[in-house]
Design brief:
about 20% strand; eight-stranded mixed sheet; 11 helices; alpha/beta; about 270 residues
């Protein structure tokens, strides 16, 4: 997949732009990059135009030290769609932190959202102690580098069966984390720590919505995702057996099939 570059505002974003038709924007999780969506890009691009960027601070995109809010990420993506000539509504899909960005994209650019796909994410803001922990981790990252984050996060990202049966997957995710600039990771951590709670706004979402969650996700549990789905009018929840927090990577065929089923209803 060819990686292209586009300057939007004060940052250069790297992205994959593959296929033709209704645009589908894939927003990666923390602290990863667009490659987590490789299977979905391959599955969707035969029928749709798939845009999979590296958010600022991640992958091959430009770095912004300090703090990057979820709203800033959303603004970047709106500008990227503008630069690519996509003025009409797109299907917006995000995993984990990408879901936080997707919420903010909907809050600010609802008219540009054809449908929402939320994978293994949360609508609630961080509890104070969790937010404080993110700030501590951000400072530690700048001292020690991203290797410490790969070590501490990996047990939480994958289902036990995935980690045991597919060690190469854990190794590949670890390599992505380890090559990410610590300043980019730290900036996103600080932004996540102060992200707004969107729970009270879920009932306002009128576009089609699909929620996907790994049955073994310990970070954004099926129970929590179910609560979100029930709060969004007409939303559908798909639970992916044998997957943890990284359901699109752990069970790509099942996740892609759920996405394609929704996309087929959109015309």
């Amino acid at each position: 997949m060819n990686l292209e570059n586009q300057t939007v505002g004060d940052v250069q974003l790297a992205y994959v732009d593959s296929g033709e038709g209704m645009p589908v924007l894939l927003i990666h999780g923390f602290p990863l990059d667009h490659t987590m969506w490789n299977a979905q890009i391959g599955a969707l691009a035969a029928r749709y135009r798939v845009i999979a960027p590296d958010l600022r601070g991640f992958g091959s995109s430009g770095i912004t030290p300090g703090k990057v809010t979820m709203e800033q990420f959303a603004d970047d993506l709106a500008s990227l769609l503008d630069a690519l000539g996509i003025g009409g509504p797109a299907v917006v899909c995000g995993l984990s932190m990408g879901g936080y960005v997707a919420w903010q994209f909907w809050c600010k650019y609802a008219q540009r959202v054809r449908a929402l796909i939320l994978c293994d994410t949360r609508a609630a803001a961080d509890a104070p102690e969790v937010a404080a922990g993110r700030l501590v981790t951000a400072d530690r990252l700048l001292r020690e580098g991203p290797g410490m984050l790969a070590e501490t996060m990996m047990p939480k990202l994958l289902a036990e069966s995935t980690a045991a049966g597919r060690p190469e997957l854990a190794e590949a995710l670890g390599r992505v984390i380890e090559r990410t600039d610590p300043q980019g990771i730290a900036a996103a951590l600080r932004g996540m720590a102060e992200r707004p709670d969107v729970t009270a706004r879920l009932a306002e979402i009128t576009c089609p919505a699909l929620l996907i969650v790994g049955a073994e996700d310990a970070i954004s549990t099926p129970q929590e995702m179910g609560t979100i789905a029930r709060a969004i009018p007409g939303a559908r929840l798909v639970e992916i057996a044998g997957a943890g927090h990284m359901s699109p990577v752990e069970r790509p065929q099942q996740v892609s099939a759920a996405m394609l089923e929704l996309l087929a209803t959109l015309g």
